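Notes to self after the call with IL:
- keep both proteins in one doc
- input above output, always
- annotate only the second one for now

Protein 1:
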Amino acid sequence: MELSLHVTLLALTAAVLHACWNAVAKSVVDKRRMYIVSNLVAGAVGLALLPFVDSPALESWPYIVAGALVATIYTIVLFAAYRIGDLSQIYPTIRGMTPLMIALGATAFADEHLAARQYIGIAIVSIGIFSLAFWRAADRLSLGMIAFCALGAVMVSSYTVIDGLGVRRSGSPFGYMAWLLIGYMVVALAAYPLLGRWRMTDSPRQLGRLVLVGLGISLTYGLIVHALNLGAMAPVSALRETSIIVAALIGTLLLGEPFGRARVVAAALVTAGLLVLKLPIA
């Protein structure tokens, strides 16, 4: 299944937006506060969209509920993983695993079959992202970290396949997006006690950043769900995960962070993977 230019641009735009709101989120100290506020904002966006969209078909509602639940479980797993490992190791490991897992899930549950070169391209993208976690000889994952990363990758893969299946059954992609954002808000509020205590920040600037993150999440998820409705799940996922490389570029160009050999190698691998994924090979 080849991705159209339209779907490719949707996924890449989502990757850029994902990297941008993550750059804003990087300055937020309390990640639990960020999670709850950003989901409140996302839910508000979903509620604001309701008057302008059609209600999704009844058969898609179980997917909305399941997608919101699994995404929240992923967040809980991610917070737990960060207690025993660094973000620079945990996040690339999880996101590097997901495209191939999604390829398996899409084949099993959506009957999506890709060309051999597409699987190869996805694998190269995954290796590029994955390499960011293991560049230094001192970087080693404990068994506990590996277990959390694998579980996190399963959760990301699961909610991606769930959303892909759900939006295709909805008859109203934008209605599905709106209710999915509302679902994230509801489940996030219910899961709040599992994430620890929360107190509203006194800093208007900090609160403004949290609102920006929420808006970024809303737009990113909307674009990805739209792309999943139109294209094969695994290639869309691989394009989305390039956000890690985009975030590295943003850090270098705007935040003064060194790009470094690890990021150069990872960027080269991801670019090569995307070329294999997208360009026809005789």
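Protein 2 (the one to annotate):
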Amino acid sequence: MDDGKDSAQAESRTGTAPPAFRAAVDALRTARLRPQIEVEPTPAPRRLAPFAYALEAAVVDGDEDLADGRLVLLHDPAGHEAWHGTFRLVTLVRAELEPEMAADPLLPEVCWSWLTGALQARGLTYGEPSGTVTRASSHYFGGLSARPAASQIEIRASWTPREGRGGTPDTAAHLASWCDLLAQVGGLPPAGPGDSSVVTLPQRRGPQPR
């Protein structure tokens, strides 16, 4: 979470940024998202690009925290050879799984298809996608032996959003797609038309120690 000082510094840096980046950030701030997803700004990494803005989000259902993640918007006005563009989106998404679901050998491929499918479902064009899908299991011993075994899925990915008018990508739509991914990983049903073909794992998790 960001404190007041970090927020003030982020606002100052955004205010001096190029117009295309300011427009992209404004679109992120004003995007309308489904109510089960709580989104707020968080301090952005400072060494990945000249300009950066970050959000963190959690999928909440009652008292349950089903999934969480972070989305970072990077901008280099001079362009970046690896990105093939001036903007880049970087994400981390994670959620707890039932152990039997985590054991599914096709789980990594399915989770990666959720990311690309979420972007395609909203008609977004993008380039240079890359990332990893990691699953891990935790078993507790000694003073923690009363805790049941836990399994987690983690998606780390990045892609280059295609730039539109004024050199600014449609970051609001990319944020909505990212939230669709969060919802899928968290086990929520599809939010609207066009998403009914998405396969959703029946996964849930309770409050997780931080």
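Annotation: The chain has one domain: 4-186. The helical segments are 4-15, 19-30, 99-102, 107-121, 171-186.
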